[in-house]
Amino acid sequence: YNEAIAGCNELINGFKDSDNSEIRLQVAKALLNKRYLFTELGKEEEEFAVCNELINGFKDSDNSEIRSMVADSLFNNGLFLDKLGKYEESLAVYDELVNEYKDYKNKEIRNRVGLALFRKGFLLGKLGRDKEATEFIENW
Fold first, then answer.
1. Labelling 108: which of 49, 55, 59, 114 has CA 20 to 30 A away?
2. What is the full per-residue pLDDT of the chain (140 aa) written as tens digits?
3. Pick from 87, 54, 90: nearest CA to 71
4. Is 88 exposed, middle or buried (0-12, 13-18, 19+ CB in 10 A)?
5. Burial bucket for residue 106 (CB in 10 Å: 0-12, 13-18, 19+)
6. Which residues make Cβ contacts (< 8 Å) with residue 76, sequence separation at least 6?
7. Are the C-beta atoms of 113 and 102 separated by less than 8 Å?
8. 120, HSE (Cβ side, Cα atoms, 13 Å)
9. Residue 79 has what DSSP assignment?
């Protein structure tokens, strides 16, 4: 895994500032692969950091494949924050994902939006915010 991570880092560091759309797609894919490698190694904090790097570096991309990776990374970060008991931060991430991607037609993105909505409703209930949870569910 370490060699694969090093290969991802080489590509990311060498080309992250490129303006070429095809190269930017490869950089985003390298970040996604690096995230998966950290997942396999059980390095959740590193996985979270890579998701943030992908989100921050590519959230304004016009490429639908990259936007799907960003949406997936946002959802992943929401789950990570859930696991740490940082529910308010997690809710904010889910809100960001829904607000940014609710009108997208891409199947993968719609899936992440749906899961974020589900997680938000679940967390509101878990936090005892039943009235807010009910209003949230009724409005969606």
1. 49
2. 999 999 999 999 999 999 999 999 999 999 999 999 999 999 999 999 999 999 999 999 999 999 999 999 999 999 999 999 999 999 999 999 999 999 999 999 999 999 999 999 999 999 999 888 888 878 77
3. 54
4. exposed
5. middle
6. 35, 47, 48, 51
7. yes
8. 24
9. H
The Cα–Cα gap between 116 and 75 comes to 7
13 residue type, one letter: N
Token digits for 14?
């060498």
- Per-residue pLDDT at 75: 97
Q: Name the phi and psi angles at 43, rounded to 5.
A: -100, 80
On whether the CB atoms of residues 7 and 29 are closer than 8 A, the answer is: no
CB 101 within 8 A of CB 71: yes
Task: Read off the tokens for 57.
Answer: 């570096």
Q: Residue 48 in contact with residue 67, Cβ under 8 Å?
A: no
Q: Is 53 exposed, middle or buried (0-12, 13-18, 19+ CB in 10 A)?
A: middle
